[in-house]
## 1
Amino acid sequence: MSRIEDVAKKAGVSIATVSRVINNSGNVSEKTKMKVWKAIKELNYKPKILASALARHKEKFYVGICKSNRLIKMEKEKTSPEFYSVILEALEEVGKTYGIKFEKMDIQKPEKCDGYILVGGDSTKEIINFYRELEKPFLLLDHYIPGEKIDCIVTNGYDGAYFVTNYLIKKGFKKIYHIHGPLYSYGFKSRFEGYRNAMEDANLIPRFFEYDDVNDNMSEVINSIDIPEAIFASNDITAMRIIRELRKRNIRVPEDVSVIGFDDILSAKDFDPPLTTLKVFKDEMGSLAAKRIYELLVGHDVHPILISLFTKFIKRKSSI
Amino acid sequence: MSRIEDVAKKAGVSIATVSRVINNSGNVSEKTKMKVWKAIKELNYKPKILASALARHKEKFYVGICKSNRLIKMEKEKTSPEFYSVILEALEEVGKTYGIKFEKMDIQKPEKCDGYILVGGDSTKEIINFYRELEKPFLLLDHYIPGEKIDCIVTNGYDGAYFVTNYLIKKGFKKIYHIHGPLYSYGFKSRFEGYRNAMEDANLIPRFFEYDDVNDNMSEVINSIDIPEAIFASNDITAMRIIRELRKRNIRVPEDVSVIGFDDILSAKDFDPPLTTLKVFKDEMGSLAAKRIYELLVGHDVHPILISLFTKFIKRKSSI
């Protein structure tokens, strides 16, 4: 059976280079990779990626969980407590299986760690640059900043919004509003774009309205729009407020207007009427984050990627 | 040391459910997962994800590589031969380390396999539905169809386009054109959106022009536009044709107009002038595809995801 040394010799490169090619960890030119793969093929060498990963598995890693300021504020105000707690529970539990111990810390003053996970949708470029300078692996959990090329794990809001807008179009609706949160948040922006593209692809006019659930008044929003056939809200909280305001005006949901939310928070199921929505897979996000930071820690497949989880459409009674 | 049986008993669920929670494979409610994790924590049970993956690693999987019709046509015409061959070389070599044997087959009439990889940017919803009915794991390589929730591996065209448009804006340019391929292709569409959003975010007017490199004439395109300060083309081939047409008109690149491509094909480096572009990480795509189909085959982290690889900006002489 061939050994890694034979491959290195045949390809005319170092053992370290062969290892980098096998583990996809570091700068190796395509030409060199091709040479290494050719040698691997000719010698019928069988590298064991998982075996080496398992060997390293005994190592203990120490990773900081750094919550964004907005998230800490939200937790204090209990506006969205179950969302991130589910993600972080999964992260910590699955992390253990990879030999990772997590510790919560201040995003502005992190302790020395092997790596970091920045949690929440409002980390800025300044924070990113600060973490870049620490020269340790890190990733964004539930956030993405275009053009920064940082590993991140997000929900595919674009896809879910595109899907559900098409669903409403197929029901025969033409006048479909989108009421969305502030577009500086990647989550809201991607849902907005999924809605807009689905409408444009169907030659329908996108009609949208920004609503900040912290500062704005839903009654004013509803007063200012023509009541449409359907409303897709960019989160469940907003959808619930829309339904309450419509009812005050004796507009029936879903008989007169179909209303759909996003997130599938725990209270969506028990709302009256139960809310049609797109389920966000919170614990899968945590689990993928644990796996991804582990890969970055051991230097496997380190080229930066965005991992985006598809949502699931949950049909309940707030829409026809 | 605790065993999986103890966890199952304490959580009041079956061993199979505990296993599904640990491996993230299958439908388990969040509530049940929480119970299982709580039991794992209290019993200090240490599951070995990687160990079980390694055990299964001895299995031989047989996976079909199904090239799209457009890709097969391109290969015959040798319009883009080195691009997909690099991806597939990496896929096959890394696949071996996971115990996967790949076989190329007709996308319309695939043989019986454990799973399938559909390669290329033009697989339709009809093809997707056909593969769905086979009830075997499959993924799209270099393609994504919004709203279909299929596992896929793509290049992050949005991110690269957003980055490079900002780069040109920071250079002081205001009149920046985007000449793009047909927008039914996800690759071109996402680059287009990255360009458009970057321009809009900087309060600049997006100016774009569709150019199909198979059917259109670049001379006519250049005749029909006001010559701008910079042109961002949605692939390298298009950028090269733009540069040739500008030169025929005695317009200098980069002195009069900066031109930037996308892909970093082999000939980009040796073009005159050498082409500034965004590098697509072809072998990393192949490697990630091998890993992802393996995960789907063994039932680990099966919730469908989109994996999107960030590009790298390569500054050469076709732009200032």
## 2
Amino acid sequence: MTGKPLRPVAIIGAGPGDPDLLTVKAHRLIGEADVVVYDLLVSVEILDLVPPGATRIFAGKRARKHFMPQEEINELLVSLAKSGRRVVRLKGGDPFVFGRGGEEALYLAENGIAFEMVPGITASAGCTAYSGIPFTHRGLATGVRFVTGHRHDGELDLNWRSLADPDTTLVVYMGLTNVQKISDELIKAGLAGDTPAAAI
Amino acid sequence: MTGKPLRPVAIIGAGPGDPDLLTVKAHRLIGEADVVVYDLLVSVEILDLVPPGATRIFAGKRARKHFMPQEEINELLVSLAKSGRRVVRLKGGDPFVFGRGGEEALYLAENGIAFEMVPGITASAGCTAYSGIPFTHRGLATGVRFVTGHRHDGELDLNWRSLADPDTTLVVYMGLTNVQKISDELIKAGLAGDTPAAAI
């Protein structure tokens, strides 16, 4: 144990893309990073905040639709942290809302690396704010629910009866490809055909 | 129309309380405010960011459990905006998650006052980040749902069967008073008694 203490890996939610919607903490930690491992959904404007001398590692390749496997990202974060550098893991939205931040945090912990979790504005909260559509509204929606409209195996097997609740705002992340199926299934499960909906 | 154009009212989510978890935009707008109308849940540390010369209006009185009625807050925001000042409406968490931000935005719009909505880290996202409990996790939770555990009329009439879903993380806001009832009802509705739960 002669080395200097390792710095915790910061797992940061970068929000919906506008650097103005980063948290103050995220903004500061990005500016202090030695190395940033970032996802596809992190905007160019936010990456511009990474110090010029810092290493940037893209954890996905869009063109070939081939993403770095999660296990590889986990290993990468551990080895970068062990080098003693200030590691920032930057994810779109919030790391804990369909961001798989929990898996990375767990792997770091299992390998004796401390982590720090910085929440971000989840994508749909940015959408509600900019579109003016609230998640909850007295007399209209008493709760809100987030589900994913995209499955890796292509099969969208959701509990449609439970989701077809007129009192709850339903937010479907990554639902564009399946938007017709989602709409059809919800109506089949009992939701009125004239239920207001928005695709953002 | 000889007056100067009115400034939009900024309806801002102040997040869970830590000023570090404000968005960059919220931080800036608070620092530029002429008058701030704030809720009980906005922390002292965040109020310290309000410029010394600005007016602060507390929209609730905790001691007497008497809050300024929503209609009065709506009127207040309109009249303050009409005075030409930079008005910031500051709410704990996110204005659109049980924050009634939609009602205020609607009333402003109906009265010809522009508004700007600034999302905040919703309270539970702060809790997940600081406790290390993710909203979604592969193989454990495929979605997340927010409901309120507190009703103004005291009656907690939720759809327990729909809520008792082992694949969805259920987040109950303001649920402390009713925590026993919520737990009992969920188990009665079919959720396993050993389902992990946390009160934060």
